[in-house]
Structure formats: structure tokens, C-alpha cells
Amino acid sequence: MEEFAFWRANGRRHTHRGHQIFWRDGGGGAEGTLVCIHGFPTASWDWHAVWPGLCERFARVIAPDMIGFGWSAKPRHYNYTIGDQADIHENLLREQGVGRYHVLAHDYGDTVAQELLARDAERRAAGDESLVIESVCLLNGGLFPEAHRPRPIQRLLASPLGPAVGVLGSERTFGHSLAAVFGPDTKPSDIEANQFWLLWCSKHGKRNGHKLIHYMAERRKHRERWVGALQQAQVPIRLIDGLLDPVSGAHMVRRYRELIPDPDVVELSRIGHYPQLEAPKETLTAFLEFHGNRVG
């Protein structure tokens, strides 16, 4: 718990539309800026196991808790969208004077990265180099809505019962649902499960679950834009995927290979939905190798 408390205590604050956004800043290496984009329903804490290695390589590593998540603001009356989350990252980068950056994303964060890629392509076409993506590395996520397999709790949150499901959900139910997407040999400990719960519940966050889950409908609505951003990307992209993930595992990799030209994929055979937590050494190695070989 000391490391968990340290992560929070050393966070910074960015203001977005009048709301406070928690973010972590690190670095010390020589290779530009890396932005880490977390998934649903967790937060930037997801990156803590690979954080030292990332900071050793990159000059700056930036990892926000998106609005509605973790230690950021969780306004009750708010329109949570992927586009707005992308705005948070771009506005933070501009505030920090960053013009070029790499992306490491997971789950919900993959969809945010796809929107950022679409914007990057539009800026390039317009000759605008004010904010440029240099590479993207994706971990398990719903890149293609037709291949995404939501968990029962996600389906409930997206249903008319969603508001009640979110508010009434218990720590035990939450922990069981989250553990189910991890690999059989890499389940979170009780302490880790409690940390995830605290991130979800802080600032009355669980009351917004039915609003945040709208991203699944957004993926269907914007499929052409977001899948097209991957297919037509002008920067190197690698997918690192835990194959035993029931949400976006081996079946997502198969779809990725079908749709993406010259796919660069690293498969983790015994790992589930959270490679950066279940296999941090292997994930970090695969990411840094990608960065060195394809980007550097």
C-alpha cells in the first residue's frame, strides 16, 4: 500500500473544463515523451509495474487518470465521451509544451488512442505539425467492436439497469468480475483488488459507471473512423496482447491480423487482459524492443 499511496501523493493536477485531472509525470531517459493511457474501470496506477522501465527510457512519461476515473474528478452531470478524453490528453500535452509524443495504451485507452490517431492523420493532411504522434503501442482492448466480448457486468451497466447496478455493486462483485479477465496464473492479490476498488469508488465514482460504459456504443458508432485510423496509420504500431483475455484476447488478435496491413503483434500466451500488471517484464521488453527497432 505504500507504493499506492506514494503514487497518489506524487500526482499533479490539470484543469479540464473546470474539473481537476490527476496525472503522474516521470522520466529521465533520452527518448522523447511517452503518454500512457489507461483502461476501464481503473486508472494510471495500472502502469506502476512498468513505470520505472518507461522512465529510464523516455525523457518524459505522462499518465493521466481520465475524467471519471481514479483520482480525477468524477462529476455526476457530465457527458463522458472518448472525444473528450482525447481532448484531456491533447490539452495536457499542449500545456506542458509537448509537440511530439509516443503512445502506450490499454483497453478503453486504446479507443482514445484510435481517436488521437484519427486527429493526427487530419492534422498531417492539413500540414499542421503542432502536435504529432510518433508511435503507438496497444495492449488488450476492443479495437474492433465486432470482436469485443463485453463481460456480464459491462452489459448490465449498459442496460436500463445500469444506474442501479453501478451504485449497488459491492467490492466482492467488482473484484470477482475484474479477476475473471486476468490469466489463470496471474490473478490480482486481495491487496491489488482492493486498490482497484478504491480507484473505482473514490469521489463516488461508481455512480457514473453507466455513463462511462457508453464507450461501447461509441465504438460501434465511430467504427469507420477508429478502425480506419489503425488501417491507415502513418506511424509504427504494435499490439501486445494477452491471449487468455476473454474480452479482447486471441480472438481480437485474429481480427487484428485480418484487418491491419503488415500487423506487428506480440502474443503473451498465458496472460489475460492486463499484460502490464500480469507480465510487466515481458510487456516492458516487448514495448521497448518495438520502440528501439521500429521507432528508434
Give an account of the 3D structure.
The protein has 296 residues and is an alpha/beta fold. It is 45% helix and 16% strand. It has 14 helices and 8 strands. Strands 1-2-4-3-5-6-7-8 form an 8-stranded mixed sheet, with helices on both faces. The N and C termini lie far apart (36 Å).
* Cα-based radius of gyration, to the nearest Å: 18 Å
Low-pLDDT runs of 5+ residues are none
What is the mean predicted local confidence, pLDDT? 92
Strand content: 15-25%
Ends distance: 36 Å
> Main sheet: which strands, in order across?
1-2-4-3-5-6-7-8
List the helices and strands and how they pair.
Elements: H1 2-9, E1 12-16, E2 19-26, E3 33-37, H2 51-57, E4 60-64, H3 82-95, E5 100-105, H4 108-125, E6 132-138, H5 152-158, H6 162-168, H7 171-179, H8 190-201, H9 209-212, H10 215-221, H11 223-231, E7 237-242, H12 250-259, E8 265-268, H13 275-278, H14 280-295
Parallel strand pairs: 3-4, 3-5, 5-6, 6-7, 7-8
Antiparallel strand pairs: 1-2, 2-4
